[in-house]
Amino acid sequence: MGPACLLDTNVVIGFFDTSLPVAGQRFVAGLQPVISVITHIELFSNPRISATELAQLRQFVALATVHSDLDPALVEAAITVRQRHKVKTPDAIIAATALVRGLMLVTRNTRDFEQIDGLTVINPFLL
Q1: How many other β-carbons are positioned within 10 Å of the β-carbon of residue 7?
Q2: What span, in angstroms and rounded, lies between the C-alpha atoms of 92 and 116?
Q3: Superfamily, domain 4-68+103-126
């Protein structure tokens, strides 16, 4: 298993719907799966999710480390991110989770995150 990285929702979806290129698929498959509470919520928010997709996502979440606690350090980090950068609250929580937990963020949406100091971001769609 590779390093622990925080996977954004778009990466998990891209992995399962195979829109993630082969190099990105290999990269993500080699990681320890870690997600934030935001990603956990977003993965199951589609009202038209198929039974097969639902089963895949449930299995994935069961294997993943889910950072669902919004402890004071994470809340303060999310506030700081929101104060310094124009990001929405869910993205601020995702960024704060990566920062506080010392994780690299794996996302397709690098534009919203790359300006955040101390946050390492990788786009597996470009590997």
Answers
A1: 26
A2: 10
A3: 5'-nuclease (3.40.50.1010)
Structure-token pair, residue 90: 């869910």
Distance, first Cα to last Cα, the chain: 19
Dist. CA 15–CA 65, nearest whole Å: 17
Amino acid residing at 39? T
pLDDT in tens, the chain (127 residues): 566 799 999 999 999 998 999 999 999 999 988 999 999 999 999 899 999 999 999 999 999 999 998 999 999 999 999 999 989 999 999 999 999 999 999 999 999 898 999 999 999 999 9
Full DSSP string of the chain: ---EEEEPHHHHHHHHTT-S-HHHHHHHHTSEEEEEHHHHHHHT--TT--HHHHHHHHHHHHHSEEE----HHHHHHHHHHHHHS---HHHHHHHHHHHHHT-EEE-S-GGGTTTSTT--EE-GGG-
Q: What is the pTM of this model?
A: 0.91
